[in-house]
Amino acid sequence: MMYLYALGFSFLLVLLLVPIVRAGALRIGFVDRPARRKVHTKPVPLSGGVAIYAGVIATTFLFLGDSPIFRAIAVGGALLVAIGLVDDAFKSSGREFPVWPRLLIYIGVSLIPSAFGITIAGISAPSRSAMILFSPGWAAFFTALWVFSLINMLNFIDGIDGLASGVCVISSFTLFAASLIGNQSVTALIGIALAGACLAFLTYNFHPARIFMGDAGATFLGYTLAVTAIEGTLKGATFLSLFVPVLALGVPILDTVIVFSRRLLEGKGLHRADNLHTHHSLMRWGLTQVQTVSFLYLIAAVFSLMSIVILLMLR
């Protein structure tokens, strides 16, 4: 019952907050303007990440209280939302924010979970008869690599209406289910709070979108999903259970692999924005925005079901 309350509270809070932050963004001209690489044709407010962050943090604190994972998400998330808003402000004014300040913040934030004791501590054999424990340095490195990757991967797929928020709904419910199966009540609560926030935001963000989450929202979602996955399934994973979070977050991971491969083959910089993402390709093949998003939702759902099946097989 607690999980239903958390889901409802998170959903209602974000549902109420989005119109407020949207109106404020329109008033000050904080919008994403149409451009050659973008698919929208009208200016759209960029402030959705603020509502998502507030909804997730408020729900988590209300139902969990103070804890290391709450602090990790709150502190790291605040830094990401802050730098994301700066980046979005540059976009709103038609300028490009330098990559290095963002990169340094992302690296710093990726180290925060380890500071609160949330690390990928090691990996065991499928039978759990033996476990390879990582040294503190290697544990921090693998943790930071996972977190840094997810921060960027969620940001990469936030390219058309409803894609990032909808995929996060599916991923959050998957991590919630995985946490329940593993008797991890804390991460189950965070997963359901994240699902409620993303589901509420999706009601405004599905095509035609009335608001975007911006870099502030996309990076925060990637970070929170990454931290939740570590605490829920990766702290002392078996080799096979590593596939659970990877599949649960399969769409952004697969998209990043495809895009980076194509950029390398074409000799482009890995950080350069382009039209090589999966959703761009699907739309060039003739799919509408709604059809493209629906297809990728289906892929995300299949990956998520596979992850749950693997987890049940390991029980």
UniProtKB/TrEMBL annotation:
Record: residues binding Mg(2+): N155, D215
Annotated transmembrane regions: 47-65, 72-91, 103-125, 137-157, 163-181, 188-206, 237-260, 295-314
UniProt keyword annotation of Transmembrane helix present: yes
Keyword annotations: Cell membrane, Magnesium, Membrane, Metal-binding, Transferase, Transmembrane, Transmembrane helix
Main location (coarse class): membrane
Signal peptide range: none
Protein name: Undecaprenyl/decaprenyl-phosphate alpha-N-acetylglucosaminyl 1-phosphate transferase
